[in-house]
Design brief:
alpha/beta; seven-stranded parallel β-sheet; 47% helix; globular; binds nicotinamide-adenine-dinucleotide
Length: 264
């Protein structure tokens, strides 16, 4: 068993996060450090290229690709771009996602659809496109879905986000059991509150009603007082490890990486 990903090809969605801060860029770094070639996909072309350029500067193999994962055709093009560029596909990290704190009665149909498309359908589309390529490999493949603590319980995150992340648990387990005998693993990683632009930027990005404000405050209290916030590399290094053959018997697992939050 080896931690090397030499010769392996990966896609990471949401790869354009800020240097040293986002989990997405950290996943790219971790995979590159192990020798993988990585397609860095993000809806923000400039930040995706920033990540890829940083990797190339360090001697790694990386290309950027602009893909909005809420668009089925972008997701299909992303998978074909990875295979076209690097000749194969071994690892798919469905990382891009975003949450909100809208409660049941504040959630309109549009917001509900957005949450499900961004956090669930995107991973379905990408996995469906990736698996046929992985089945061609002698070494199989691995799909790693970034879920959330909100995928493990009905905590007071927004209802659409919570429902979508619970759906992602089901998608993960179903892919894992379907392809276990054909060399493809599928794993879900559930970050707790992690210091990244997502939660810090969340409050200004949404219109905060009383119930949302209360939920955000509760989240901050839990993270600040009960448990410390995670650091992006504490998530991305775990995801990088799960992609290696050393983790070959980990399949269908839904792994909390939250400092103990969901053990409460
Ligand atoms: N940060 C947390 O506290 C936390 C907690 C639980 C789960 N998560 C999950 O982690 C993931 C995000 O990680 P992060 O918080 O480190 O963010 P991040 O810093 O890795 O950035 C997310 C990236 O996703 C990109 N993105 C957003 N929407 C996209 C789309 N439609 N198509 C393509 N790219 C898109 C953004 O441009 C950004 O570069 C999400 O799946 C989120 O649900 C985060």
């Amino acid at each position: 068993m080896t931690n090397s990903l030499d010769g392996r090809v990966a896609i990471v969605t949401g790869a354009g996060s800020l240097p040293g801060r986002g989990i997405g860029r950290g996943i790219v770094q971790s995979l590159c450090d192990k020798g993988a070639s990585v397609l860095c996909a993000d809806k923000d072309e400039a930040t995706a290229e920033d990540t890829a350029a940083e990797m190339r500067k360090a001697g790694h193999s990386a290309k950027s690709f602009r893909a909005d994962v809420t668009l089925k055709e972008d997701v299909a093009a992303m998978v074909e771009a990875a295979v076209g560029e690097f000749g194969r596909l071994d690892i798919l990290c469905n990382h891009a996602g975003f949450g909100s704190f809208y409660a049941l009665t504040e959630t309109d149909d549009e917001h509900w659809d957005t949450m499900l498309t961004l956090n669930l359908s995107s991973a379905f589309w990408a996995s469906r496109a990736a698996v046929p390529h992985m089945l061609k490999n002698d070494t199989g493949g691995v799909i790693i879905n970034t879920i959330s603590s909100a995928g493990m319980g009905g905590a007071r995150a927004g209802i659409g986000y919570t429902a979508a992340k619970h759906g992602l648990v089901g998608l993960t387990r179903s892919i894992a059991t379907t392809y276990a005998t054909r060399g493809i693993r599928c794993i879900g990683v559930c970050p707790g509150y992690t210091r990244s632009p997502l939660p810090e930027g969340m409050k200004p990005q949404i219109q905060v009603s009383d119930s949302q404000d209360e939920a955000v405050q509760l989240l901050h209290q839990l993270a600040d007082l009960s448990f410390r916030q995670g650091k992006p590399h504490e998530l991305s290094e775990v995801i990088g490890f799960l992609a290696t053959d050393t983790a070959s018997f980990i399949n269908g697992a839904i792994l909390p990486v939250d400092g103990g939050w969901t053990a409460l």
